[in-house]
# Entry
Amino acid sequence: MQINLKRALKLRKELEATLAKVDLPSTGSINLLIEAQRTNPANMVVLAQAVYANKVAEYVKLSHILADLRIKLDEANISSGIHRILAEVADLDRRIGIYKKVVAERVAPNKELIEAEVKQKVADNAAPESRSYGRDRSIGFAVASVDMIEAAREMVAAFKRRKDELEDQRVATNARILIEIPEDTAELLTKLGLI
# Structure
């Protein structure tokens, strides 16, 4: 059986979710109202143990299937170039994060404003009452210029456009590339409702 990468990715997530919540029937019960169970309880224990062992084996098989699927996905991602697309998208996400911080900055004061603030602070500090301990002797200011902020805004927009292009390429490739799943694996996954 062949499935495309998009379906294989969804299957991988479903298998990971299934294996994250392993649910084993760790207890059994004997119904005292049923004569066969009441008169031969050892058979019920053997039956419960068989169900338990089958469930353990099923989860182990699913783990092997997941490992095989991950290998096939990795190989398909490399051969189709998806790994390059994903790496570029991750780089764009990081750069967008950096430039968004610049866009969110306050604008640096103009030269005249900072010079006037420094003169005022120097005059305030020259007064006798300002010579006490703990008096603030510095001036803080924003450093991002209007040009820096505008350039960052443009970069964010350009990076988002490039990300959209890459996403379109990735989706098209995921729909086009097929991977092979063995028939016995397909039967088990179908039985479990995963494909």
User: Anything to note?
Assistant: The two ends are 11 Å apart (CA to CA). The chain has a mean pLDDT of 91. Residues 2-130+140-191 form one domain.
